[in-house]
Amino acid sequence: MKTFSYHSPKDVKEASKLASTSSAFLAGGMTSIPSMKLGMATYKDVIDLKKIKKLSGIKVSSKAVTIGATTKHAEVAASKEVQKAIPALAKLAGNIGDAQVRNKGTIGGSISNNDPSACYPSACMALNAVIHTSDRKIEASKFFKGMFETALKKGEIVEAVEFEIPEKADYQKHPNPASRYAIVGVFVAKHKKEVNVAVTGAKSCVYIDKDLSKKLSSDFSSSVIEGIELDDSEMNSDMHASAEYRANLVSLYAKKAVEAC
Question: In the CATH scheme, what is the code of domain 168-260?
Answer without folding.
Answer: 3.30.390.50
